[in-house]
Amino acid sequence: MTGLPPDSHTHTQWSWDATAGDMVGSCARAVELGLPAIAFTEHVDITRWVIPPDRQERMTVHGRGVASDGRFDPPPLDVDGYRASLEHCRERFPELRILSGVELGEPHWFPDEVDELLASGAFDRILGSQHTVELDGRPWIVDSLDHGDVPPDLTPEAIVRAHLSEMLELVTGCDRFEVLAHVDYAVRRWPDGPAAFPVTRFEEEFREVLRALAGTDRTLELNTVIPLDRRIVAWWVDVGGRTLTFGSDAHAPAVVGHGLAEAAGLARSLGFRPGRHPSDPWHR
Ligand SMILES: [Zn+2]
Ligand SMILES: [Zn+2]
Q1: How far away, in angstroms, is 43 Cα from ligand 2 center?
Q2: SS3 137
Q3: Which ligand is nearest the CA of 132, by number?
Q4: What is the largest CA-CA distance in the chain?
Q5: Beta bridge partners of 38
Q6: Pairing state between β 49-50 and 71-72
Q7: Which-ligand-closest: CA of 18?
Q8: What pLDDT digit, counting tens, does each position of 130-165 carry?
Q9: How far is 139 from 104, CA to CA, in rounded Å?
Q10: What are 206-226's pLDDT values in tens digits?
Q11: Residue 8: nearest ligand to its CA?
């Protein structure tokens, strides 16, 4: 027993952007690491992002690409194929608890599509994500923003504020997800790198999002693509947040479990402990 938490946010070949995804490989890696559970939270993105002309050629995934209006149409999730893979993996790795899941991008913008998806069967982990920020009235995917793409009067600070304000809309405008994924998503693109991000300048915006999430008794994700600033988790505690999940956001088997040991240490230092069942969120 390693004491590692479950990896509650990973992607496999069933996610449109996981070109190196492999569910069997991710299960094998989870067993090797001694993870108590893994959740396969595949992307459901409906927002049609603006893609700058110089990047349009690279945006062809699974035979789909940028439409003639310069917007990207994310391929839909093949739910039947995904569920067949889950069953296959559960048979092959009986020692691993394998959770189903989805990562809903901007579900507050697409209530009908989301309800239709969720009516098709249960998912163990439903993540809500704000991947998008509206600049000049059009939707851009935040973590691939090059600062050359955006209107010159928009500072990195203004982008982070716009992103957090849209995340607040996501939390207050949709109750279909249980876990808020990567609250620090925009920090990934901070110009001098995430370590230089001045988190305290955005304290009130973060607190507002966290307060709304805690007020509806939902869960914050500690996403480990970049280290989540300890102060954000402390604010989560301060506004009454009680539960945490951990997610590597792996898009390939080798990344499963990445950063979870450090993240679990941070959570423990703020009083969070594993739940009764190995796959439960941590709580305090
Ligand atoms: Zn995401
Ligand atoms: Zn993800």
Answers
A1: 7
A2: coil
A3: 1
A4: 55
A5: 7, 98
A6: antiparallel
A7: 2
A8: 999 998 888 988 877 765 667 767 888 999 999 999
A9: 16
A10: 999 999 999 999 999 999 999
A11: 2
